[in-house]
Amino acid sequence: MAYSDTLDRWSPYALAVLRIVTALIFMLHGTQKLLGFPAPPQSGMPPVLSLFGIGAVLELVGGLLILIGLFTRPVALILAGEMAVAYWMFHAPQSVYPVLNGGDAAILYCFVFLLFVFTGPGAWSVDGARARTGPRHSWER
């Protein structure tokens, strides 16, 4: 067995670990803005129907869905879009350099979520469990 075959065997699990860790950290951005946990944002708690509030809902709910691997591809596409908008709307106007404008996390989240759009959730996901069980009713085929 070749070395690359051994590593390839573990790639669904490595992808799942990336998905889970990304989701947990991403959800903290939502809990901070919505619940003030682990600490309230410096700018104060945003109204839920504001741009920051809607972003917080996407971060918390979308992060939870990514965490459990449910509707991973469409949710990841929405979150990648959210992060692209966040970068270009809030970070890029400050400077063209991500290290100076504080947008490096937004860029990384955007591309990690884009990766999930194309790869799916990896192992340990509700999407994977649903695919294994198949349709339960005739109209789901």
From TrEMBL:
Membrane topology field: Multi-pass membrane protein
Could you tell me where this protein is found in the cell?
Answer: Cell membrane
Which residue ranges does UniProt annotate as crossing the membrane? 12-29, 49-68, 75-94, 106-126
User: Could you tell me the keywords of this UniProt record?
Assistant: Cell membrane, Membrane, Transmembrane, Transmembrane helix
**Would you tell me the Gene Ontology cellular component terms?**
plasma membrane
The entry assigns this protein to a family as follows:
Belongs to the DoxX family.
Checking PANTHER family in the record gives: BLL4328 PROTEIN, OXIDOREDUCTASE CATD-RELATED
Would you tell me the protein name for this molecule? Answer: DoxX family protein
Q: What is the lineage of its organism?
A: Bacteria, Pseudomonadati, Pseudomonadota, Alphaproteobacteria, Hyphomicrobiales
